[in-house]
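TL;DR need structure tokens for one chain.
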Amino acid sequence: MPIHTDTVRKKFPILETEVNGHPLIYFDNAATTQKPDMVMDRLRTYYERENSNIHRGAHFLSQQATEAYEAARGTMQSFINAKYPYEIIFTRGATESINLVAHSFCNKFVKAGDEVLISAMEHHSNIVPWQIACKEKQADLKVIPMNEKGELRMSAFRDLLGAKTRLVAVTHVSNALGTINPVKEMIELAHEKNIPVLIDGAQATPHMTVDVQALDCDFYCFSGHKMYGPMGVGVLYGKEVWLNQMPPYQSGGEMIKEVSFKKTTYNELPFKFEAGTPNVADVLGMEAAIKFILELGHTHIAAHENDLLAYAIEKLKQLDNIRFIGTAGKRTSVVSFLFEDIHPYDTGIILDKLGIAVRTGHHCAQPIMDFYRIPGTIRVSLAVYNTRREIDLLVDALARVREMFG
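>> reply
TL;DR here they are.
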């Protein structure tokens, strides 16, 4: 059924906050989403009733926590339609997931003179790990260019795929522009040349259904805190064929099968990549967040957010000297803009005084800002609890900013 925002908003206690005497209007969801009470209740329940280290204990609490943790792995598997539960690796978030692949995959499969291919619209987390890995391996990092609308130039992508390309790493949805990239087509083109593909899905999983088997991607990663879950937890999906060949990213604890002073053998998947004490509580909190999303339904979430996005764009167009950054034909939940004659930071500070939280700056995507020759943007990013009324208040506040600066 359609999203009823009054009902949804009651599940988020933080939305009752006042900022400088104004009701909080939260438009910084691409940075992190707020958390519904069911997520916080799950964290509290674990620490009050189930707290124990997992996989190692014969006692009741350990068994209970282990069962809950592995059930959560099954929930993640179902959520993105992975083939096997052991293809789900728990990490600290999309950033660590990318670092894991950059380290372990490149360690095994990349040598001097090889190439890794990323896009011009990547978050720093999908740029810097590949820069480091390529430098260590004396490989080359190639970049898929984009056009003025904020869309990848697919003809250039085809030309860049070559005999030296060892992996493609590209975002599903741009955090700075909202562009939805044609990742299925990109995966198909890469696979024609037997090139594996990693998809950064941090900005996709809150807004759309993701089916990794239908996409046929080799790796997919996402973060709990972008999708109403806790911070410091996320998922790396990897095809079994790659994960089995890749060396461990970190060592110690659960990733070990047998240890002597002469030799160590590694554990089976997924534990080979889950060294140390797991973040059990936040994994369970992330599972609760996924259940929250599934209860609402991605179809209804998308309809609500797309309505808000279209409404916001039309309202913002009424303001003088506004410039939109990123106008892709396929996009979701993000509108980036700036006043031509006012620094984005100045605008953001005034909005905060009025209780409106937006993100200003380069959004950890400096190459995008360099491409458009701007210092940054004002980014309004939307979630299920946002409303048209909030957008109206935002536009009114921006009109006041416009008046203040003349």
